[in-house]
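I need you to check the entry underneath: sequence plus fold tokens. Let me know what the token row says about the fold.

>
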Amino acid sequence: MEKTTNDSVSIIVADDSSEIREVVRLMLEGEGYVVFEAEDGDSTIRILKEKKDIDLIVLDIMMPGKSGLETCEEIRSFSNVPVLFLTAKSSDDDKIAAYQSGCDSFLAKPFSKAELILRVRSHLRRYRIYKGKEEANSENQNIFIDDIEIDLVRHTITKNGENIPLTDKEFSILHFLASRRGEIFSQQQIYENVWNEKYLPASNNTIMVHILNLRKKLEEDPNNPKLICTVWGKGYRIV
């Protein structure tokens, strides 16, 4: 299929159920996106490497052979393409495992078309800004915190001049805290501003996983963080 619609936006839909793949494909093609179907993790990675210009992956967790979690971990070893998990597994432990694997978002089945399309558009907009295909609405100013530079236009992070790959949500959390340096934000404030969803107590685990991942990537000693500090009983701040 030639990419001639929606500014050549390509999406992989990976699910072992052909019926689910077809439903999601029709929803996305109805919005003008080009969709490639994958029935397992290996075919997902093969398509991603062959096409090289994939903008989003919609990925199931439970698949034969390589699971969605294992697939996402392998993808993160060579690509920052957004990964949206679309799955029936929706417990808190499932969500923690999903975010630890490197996914950007988690949508439980059953889902509405409106919710899926909103998530897809959000990920695509941020990722295409990151790749330089769209203009960012913010001013062309970078944020500097010691040896870390946050490029708001290119959607990139460098530390001592070296690029630090972050997922979409990790970047958004860092940007949110860094743009209000010194202020303390609760987990609820972070979640509702970054995810744009209603906060639930279970969301605390999601925030904790992402903060932990950011510390591993940015802190000299993640166990003794100097950048993203915990204010016990109140939340997090960048000092």
